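agent> call fold_tool(seq_1)
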Amino acid sequence: MGLAGLLVKNKVFNRISLFSSSALYIIIASARWFHLELPWLPDWLSVFFQFDDIGLYFFTIMAMVFGGVYVYSLFYFKESGLPAVREASYVLKMLFFLASMTGVILATHLAMLWVFVEATTLTSALLIYFEKRKSALEATWKYVYICSIGIALAFVGIILLSIGSKNINSLFFADLYNRASEINPLWLKLSFAFIFVGLGTKIGIAPIHAWLPDAHSEAPSPVSALLSGALLNMAFLGLIRVQGILVLAHLESFSNFLFMISGFLSLIVSSVFILHIKNYKRMLAYSSIENMGILFIGMSLGSLGMYAAMIHTFAHSLSKTSLFLTSGKILDIYKSKKIDDVSGLLKRDPLTGWLWIISMLSIIGMPPFPVFLSKFLIVKAFWVNGNSWLIIPFFLFMLIVAFGMGKAVFKMSFGDDAAGKSGKINRSFYAYAPQVVLIVILLIIGINFPPQMIDILNRIAELFH
């Protein structure tokens, strides 16, 4: 449909293309959660693409994020005044990006997963440069250059793994899991080190995070939301699947050390930068680095930590999507990304102001939002694993980030209206509805976890016991 949009050059067709794709993903995710049968892939193709518990979980998150991005894109189209052909280009790039992320989620073969991770880089780069500004071009090249190096290193890791598992003669995850004990431990460790750095670059974990603040801040706001709420999860999913091999080979102490070190390093980097940040979209980008660090720390703490990391993945994706979409509305009102240029948001546009504040409270872990629960479980996992002394620095970095974000958000929300009375605000339904829905979902999940979600989280965590 995206390709047809370039030929048809009709705005209604563009919107139908986005809507149908979003609806299809939500229908598929819902059907899988309730065990409903849907037409699926032919047998020969289903060998390479399958749903499992982890895949369904990440697919559902992506479907929810993309649903919000679709609705907000309708507001973005109107405010940007894009002609039909530019809209069609946006839709085409967005659908290619969505398809590549779907491939990562469903891939049953390590090399196939790598191919789709590389595809996400190429397709998302086109979206980052969509507005064709010079700063966006610089951010795009930086993103492509750094992530391509990272993906190349991950490919080296796959080669090393194939050497170490030559007796298995397969890179299907099922075969690698079933015969993990037969993989040469030295080659497996070397392989994981390369894959860790490669996919860690794509995740934006410190110290290989340099592309992330630029790309997330220069991309259009709906694209930024998709990058932070969905793209980062794809590389993290790849690491989860490779980590499963090390757990079954009883080499998780090696990988857990790397996860823990890089996780805390990411907390340090985000804490330092977020206190002095001047650009509110870059602030959200550094918050993503912090939250990826939290996921890595959870990964290093066994099954309980994995349970917490999965909750945090869901909560971060929805909260950060809400924040980036709201930042787009702020940019539309004040025409500036600088924190100092924005004040009196609650007076200028009260709904945007409250969405900005509530989304910030969600991402820093104010109860009853799910981030509070995920952080609480990580603290418990520290204690259970005999690393209780790490609770102090963990809390310290959480406090610094919360202070830095809170200071900026409250400064922007309260005070006199920096924009004065100039300009009419477009209070479009599409500019607010996605954030409201996402926040409501987060509140419902935080107050009362659905039994189906608890069951799938337990099954995922059990794989890393």
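agent> call fold_tool(seq_2)
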Amino acid sequence: MKYSSLTLFLFLTVVFSAKAQQEMPLYPGAIPNSRNVPDTEVVEGRETGGRFISNTAVPTLSVFLPKHPNGKAVVICPGGGYRGTAIDKEGVLVAQSLNADSITAFVLKYRIPQDLTNVDKSLAPLQDAQQAIRFVRKNAAKYKVDPAKIGIMGFSAGGHLAASAATRFHKMADPNETDTTSVRPDFVVLVYPVISFTDELVHKGSRTNLLGENPSPSDILLCSAEKQVTPDSPPAFLVHAADDKSVPVGNSLAYYSACLENGIPVEMHLYPKGGHGFGMFNTTTPDEWMGRLRNWVRML
């Protein structure tokens, strides 16, 4: 049967009250590609979905450790149109659910692309995603993680960030980075993701926030993840609703097709209804996509 409002409320209340074992600065020293300005971060509470954090200039990584880690880890990138992060609904809640299946989780509060706080705003989120993967891989023994089983997961614009990390790992987003630790994720999970910046499929808010009002054709190509998939890209898992009016389902279809064309293992689950931003709970169906995800991850 469908989830009741009471069931969702109780579950969200329990999870949102949970705290990460540790929230730490993403960078041990100076933040690359940043301007020396006051922190402008704003935290808002929403009636559904918990906290929404905007204007983040100081990225952090929150660690969620399971009781019995199975060696697999996921870096989670909440969505928010590149203007903020739905840190609870698409971060904390998901991390707690993964922990229940013995998966170690890291919630990334990445920088919001702004000219005020970043020298090149288009690179800041990807720098943060690569740094998060680098951190987890370098500290794999500490967190009882297999360094060859580190994935990245993203929702909406966070899905664009995760897809970018999964397709643009050959080159460091930070040109001054000297650490040679691999930033390639071993798998990627994309939930109602922004994938393409082409006019046909674009979520205009995400593209404008990341690249500005008049992006160049080369920047549009580079930031269209379906155009960047290669045979080296990691296995992918996608979830989307066909009636998504904010981010067309064609985004997921394009990434799925690109994976097939390049021989990348890919699984996709499409729902006829659900709209955009349903998080872990698509209330239009009794199907639980998180259960399907857990089955997929077990097979990796």
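agent> summarizing second result for user.
Confidence is low (pLDDT under 50) at residues 1-18. DSSP finds eight helices and eleven strands in the chain.
agent> awaiting next instruction.
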